[in-house]
Each structure stands twice: as C-alpha cells, then as structure tokens.
Design goal:
The chain has 428 residues and is of the alpha/beta class. The protein is built from 20 helices and 9 strands. Helix 11 crosses helix 12, helix 13 crosses helix 18 and helix 17 runs parallel beside helix 18.
Length: 428
C-alpha cells in the first residue's frame, strides 16, 4: 500500500478553538427592529405595508428625525429580517428622503415589490424630479407622503401614482376641496391617519381607495439580528466598485472576499422578491445576475449602517477556509465558486450569532449546498470536511486522506498568503 503523505501539523490553527476565543466578550450582532403598518383597500383587506424605523421593540419608539432612517429600514428589510417575512406577498412602502432619492438607493429594490414613498420634506427640485422620472421609467410606483394640496406640489403629483392625504392636517370641511384639487392628477388617493369609523366612511365616499391609520391597524414591530461590518472595509470595497472598468471576475473577487457582504447578497438575491426559477448558490452567479451597479448600492447601504464588523481575525479565518475549499475543489474539477460559498457560509453561525440551520433556511440555498455545509454530504461537503479536519489537526480523517496527494500544506500556505494580501490591501 502506498504511503500517504501527511501534512505538517504545525501550520494550521484550530478554527473552532479560535472562534470560541473570539466569541468571548465580542458583540458580533445586534438586535434590529422594524415597524410595519398595514394599508387597506375599500373592503378592508390588506394590500401593502409601510415599513417604519424602530430603535427598540417598543411599538412607538420611532426615530425622531429622518437621518439614516431610510438606510436602516432598507438594510434590515432586505438583508436582516427579510422583506418576505415582513410583508409576505404584499408591496412594501419605503420612505425616501432627498438624499436617498439622489443616491438612487431605490434601485436596489425590485420595482414589483415596493412603493417609493417620497417624504413631505422632499422639495420638487430639478434633480429630485429627474430621479423620480428615472424610477418611473424603471417601473417603480411612487407615493407622496403627508399630502396637503398646494400648487407647489404639482411637479411631484405629475410623477406620483399615489397621494397619501394627511387627514389631521386638513379641516373636515376642506377635505372635499382637497380631493377635487388632487383629481386633476392621475393619482390614487390614500387616506392616512384614520382614527375613527366616520373618517373611513367619509374618505371612502369621497373616492379614496387606500386607507391607513390606527382605527384600522396599529403598527406592529418585527425583530431580527444584523451581522455587523466595519465602515473601513466597506469604504475600501466601495472605492473599487466605483471603477467603471472593473471586470466581472474582479467584482466577483471583491464580493467573495467580504464575508458580510457575501452573506447579505446571497440572502437578498435568493429572496422571493426576484421570483427566480432556481436558487443561487455561488457568488459568481449572484454577481452576474445582479450586476455591479446594484452591488454598489448594497455596499452603500452597508456604509450607512453605523455598525462594526465581527473581529478581524474571524473574518480572516472565514476567508481562509473559503479560499482553501475553492482551491481543493478546482483541483478535483468541482465547482470552485460553489466550494468557496460552502466554506464561506460554514462559519456563518459565528458571524451572525444564530443557529446555522436557521441562517441557511432564511437565505435560502439549494438542498445540496445546505447538506454540504451542515452534514458534509456530497463532493463539496467532503471538501469542506477535509478543510475543517485539517484545521483541527485530525489528519487521519478519511476526507482529508483522500485529498492528501493535493499537498494540503501548500494549499493552506497559499490560502494564508491570499488572505493576508487582502487584509493588507484593505488596510491600505
């Protein structure tokens, strides 16, 4: 029997041991909260939800100003809690201030799933109107918030699909006049802040078709957890994403080398928002499907998030595992991109401090990928098993022995060099 080459036992640290040490005293995630308030039709059936920022689980604990509200809601709705969980198959109304519109943040969202709600603080400036026309051309529906008609609103009303009429701001005897003024525009009328049955009946008789307010339903609060990211890392990523000559292969590498962004991107693109015929299992597929522009927008959202990443050493170890899985898969003619993803997600439980099965179910991934990560089943699962047993020094494990001819020590050292070069570049 041929003698099996054994890798050097002094090279690889124990990943589980290091992760256990890193977890002690380190806050890797934070609890996040979103409010949602139902919007009803004339038959009092729910047809949409407005998503609202919440600082805590208290239903009325909303942010007192607009600063960062849009970015927080979008991050949490798309990548932490999940839009599907928040609104199921209904549309989501998302508030947008001037800065969010000019930054084109809505373009990260599928137009068939959202309504862009323009806050009352947004002035009809030429740049704002151009942004709204672009959104309309892309298929987005636009609503104006807290409308009390005045001629200055005409440019916005000409672009809107829905006018949310602010009932408390209008005297009861003037509501009919407001409706008549708004009928000059091709907008659907939504009565907001309905607090009595009499208001519901009155607005319905005046031709309103959408309704929202405490009498119908108070906002509820939904919570989830968000993995944290350092702004420095996101800035470094954004700097490269701004390059118009960036090639798809380099874009794929940039995303793959950022575990936090990779996790969010896969979860986002596999959500029911996109109605994809099959699930996306690799960063390469996600990058090709979603494109550089939307990835840049998602990274911009993460920059606006104010949190911190998991410890840098945890990110390093995650990338190291993913890179080694990728290399081994390539040498045995398996899908290297999928292998990188399997390695990347195998530490997700530590990255986001949730049960691994829950994280994978929320993304979701194909059953083969889930089994590779959770049970080391299948060819990619055996690659992952070999890497994890190499990390712990269990060199006699069958999965590792089967790949011994690939010179695992050399593969590990190459992965270390690769990850260290990435870390150095991000610090530069």
């Amino acid at each position: 029997q041929a003698r099996t080459a054994r890798p050097c036992r002094c090279v690889a640290p124990s990943l589980p041991t290091r992760l256990s040490q890193l977890m002690q005293g380190d806050e890797l995630t934070r609890q996040v909260f979103l409010g949602r308030q139902a919007i009803f039709d004339v038959d009092r059936k729910v047809v949409a939800y407005e998503l609202l920022y919440r600082m805590s689980a208290a239903a009325g604990d909303a942010l007192t100003d607009n600063e960062d509200r849009t970015s927080h809601v979008m991050i949490d709705a798309l990548m932490s809690i999940g839009l599907d969980r928040l609104v199921a198959g209904q549309r989501a109304f998302l508030n947008m201030d001037t800065a969010s519109l000019l930054a084109e943040l809505p373009l990260t969202l599928p137009p068939q799933r959202v309504v862009i709600e323009v806050l009352e603080t947004v002035a009809p400036e030429p740049k704002v109107l151009a942004a709204l026309r672009h959104l309309r051309d892309r298929g987005y529906r636009i609503a104006l918030d807290d409308v009390v008609y005045q001629p200055a609103l005409d440019p916005l009303l000409e672009l809107a699909h829905i006018a949310k009429v602010d009932l408390p701001a209008i005297a009861a005897g003037q509501l009919a006049d407001q409706v008549n003024a708004l009928r000059r525009f091709n907008v659907e009328l939504l009565a907001e802040k309905i607090e009595t049955e009499a208001q519901f009946d009155q607005t319905r008789e005046l031709g309103f078709t959408l309704f929202q307010g405490y009498w119908l339903a108070r906002p509820s609060t939904v919570s989830g957890k968000r993995g944290l990211m350092r702004r420095e890392d996101v800035l470094s990523l954004l700097a490269r994403l701004q390059d118009p000559s960036l090639q798809t292969s380099e874009l794929q590498a940039l995303v793959s080398n950022n575990p936090g962004l990779s996790h969010r991107l896969l979860r986002y693109i596999n959500s029911a928002m996109f109605y994809l015929p099959r699930r996306i299992d690799s960063i390469r597929q996600a990058v090709v499907l979603i494109g550089q522009r939307q990835i840049r927008q998602i990274a911009s959202l993460l920059l606006l998030d104010g949190g911190e990443t998991p410890p840098l050493e945890l990110v390093r170890l995650t990338l190291l595992r993913a890179r080694m899985c990728e290399q081994l898969a390539a040498r045995v003619k398996l899908d290297a991109d999928a292998a990188f993803t399997v390695g990347l997600l195998s530490t997700a439980e530590m990255l986001v401090d949730q049960p691994l099965t829950q994280i994978l179910a929320d993304m979701p991934l194909s059953e083969a990928t889930v089994q590779a990560i959770c049970t080391h089943h299948g060819p990619l699962g055996q690659i992952l098993a070999a890497v994890t047993h190499y990390e712990t020094g269990n060199f006699d494990h069958p999965a590792l022995v089967a790949l011994a001819e690939l010179d695992l020590t050399a593969r590990y050292l190459e992965a270390v060099e690769f990850v260290e070069s990435i870390m150095a570049a991000s610090r530069g």
